[in-house]
Design goal:
Layout: H1 6-16, H2 21-30, E1 39-43, H3 49-57, E2 62-67, H4 70-83, E3 88-92, E4 105-111, H5 120-130, E5 131-142, H6 153-170, H7 173-185, H8 189-198, E6 202-209, E7 214-220
Parallel strand pairs: 1-2, 1-4, 2-3, 4-5
Antiparallel strand pairs: 5-7, 6-7
Helix pairs in contact: 2-3, 6-7
């Protein structure tokens, strides 16, 4: 499904968020911690927008960009050539079985991808495993669609408007209906924080952005 919409993905991210997605990614990049490995893992990296945001924030660091969907990475790889970027390494991989050694990255980011990994706990445990002690996991995700935002206006947009725009641009109604459905079914920020703690993270906290449309979750591996 993500392979089908890869070439429309960036455009629709900007259109459907009214351009606020660029701000959300900057906030995510600002939340990571650099450490002794000088290496970040961008999980569910997609078309590499977060990877580029990390490189802009930390130009001396390497970014491992992993995603389960190869066509998304292929689309993103065109940006690497265009920007002559040699410190982002895209690799097709499963978030529940990361092809990385223990304690090998300073921070892990995942933007709008944790909803698509089931069960989430396996991904959280893998993130925890590959982090260096004291390292940080930073997760950007939509808030639960079960919470009323802006008096229900956002919920109407999510359920009625978003799938229609997605279908109009990508001609793939099922993909954007899936997006709406998974946001509505996603747990609350507090529930997700508890899942991270269950996986071993400490100092877990979350910040609601844009009235709770998006949440930034941060947890650390005990030093």
């Amino acid at each position: 499904m993500f392979g089908r919409i890869a070439r429309f993905y960036d455009l629709l991210n900007h259109v459907l968020s009214l351009g606020i997605d660029c701000y959300w990614r900057r906030v995510l990049a600002a939340s990571v911690l650099a450490g002794p490995n000088h290496r970040f893992l961008d999980l569910a990296a997609g078309t590499l927008d977060v990877s580029f945001a990390l490189r802009r924030r930390y130009p001396g660091c390497e970014v491992l960009a992993l995603d389960f969907c190869l066509p998304m990475l292929v689309h993103g790889q065109k940006k690497l050539a265009r920007h002559r970027e040699r410190h982002i390494s895209p690799v097709a991989a499963d978030g529940k079985h990361l092809p990385l050694p223990d304690n090998s990255v300073d921070s892990v980011t995942i933007a709008f991808g944790i909803r698509n990994i089931v069960p989430r706990i396996e991904a959280f445990r893998e993130m925890h495993r590959v982090l260096t002690p004291g390292g940080r996991a930073c997760i950007l995700e939509f808030g639960s669609g079960r919470e009323r935002i802006w008096g229900g206006l956002y919920n109407f947009y999510l359920n009625r408007v978003l799938p229609g725009i997605g279908n109009l641009v990508s001609h793939d109604q099922s993909a954007y209906s899936y997006l709406s459905r998974t946001i509505c079914e996603f747990p609350s920020a507090l529930e997700l924080a508890r899942e991270m703690e269950e996986a071993g993270f400490v100092r877990v906290q979350y910040t609601k952005l844009t009235s709770g449309i998006v949440c930034l979750h941060v947890g650390e591996k005990r030093a």
